[in-house]
Amino acid sequence: MSVHIRLNRKGINSIEMPESADVGVGESLVLKMINHGAPLHLTVSTINGKRFTHFIHENMYVDDSLVLRIPILSVAPPGSFRIEIITGYGTVKEELTVNVHDQEIELPEGMEEIPDIEEKKSIISGKDALVILCAVLAWISYASGFFYPGLIPVIVPMVLLTAGVVIGWFFRSS
């Protein structure tokens, strides 16, 4: 969205602009300032705009023309905030109400319904259950080594963990 702001056209430090502007979430509001008179200092500030933009305040010097982009956050809620424009070191002030709205999503032609998502019947497949079983048996075998020391509680967990990795590798889903 682009807003034209005319400065010094009706008199020294005069500001002419619309009362409001509409902009979509994630877009930028473009302020095009056109100076019709002598160069001037200008202040642009947002009022209650923290939820909509990171832009807060800027002082500028406008010779002939100037473009200022105010980005609207992509996570901004629908609503409105005001932009205050001040010239003449505070003697002239105008406000612009910025209405922020959601972007409309256009569906391609021929797509009237969103297809249903197929639900999985089982959360854990057979191969996943086998890998989990190998890991559980390996931990039980490893823990038994604390009570029954020897070579078997050391070898069995390694074999079971290796088997679980091999099963998981060969039967991985893409």
Walkthrough of the structure:
The protein is of the alpha+beta class. It is 22% helix and 35% strand. The protein has 2 helices and 9 strands, in the order βββββββββαα. The chain has helices at 126-144, 152-170, and strands at residues 2-7, 15-16, 20-24, 28-35, 40-47, 57-62, 65-71, 79-87, 92-101. Strands 3-9-8-5-6 form a 5-stranded mixed β-sheet, with no helix packed on it. It has a 4-stranded mixed β-sheet with strand order 2-1-4-7, with no helix packed on it. It starts with a strand and ends with a helix. The relative contact order is 0.14. The model has no long low-confidence stretch (mean pLDDT 85).
In short:
With 174 residues, the chain is an alpha+beta fold.
Features:
174 residues; 22% helix; alpha+beta; 9 strands; four-stranded mixed beta sheet; elongated; five-stranded mixed beta sheet
Write the layout of secondary structure elements.
Elements: E1 2-7, E2 15-16, E3 20-24, E4 28-35, E5 40-47, E6 57-62, E7 65-71, E8 79-87, E9 92-101, H1 126-144, H2 152-170
Parallel strand pairs: 1-4, 3-9
Antiparallel strand pairs: 1-2, 4-7, 5-6, 5-8, 8-9
Helix pairs in contact: 1-2
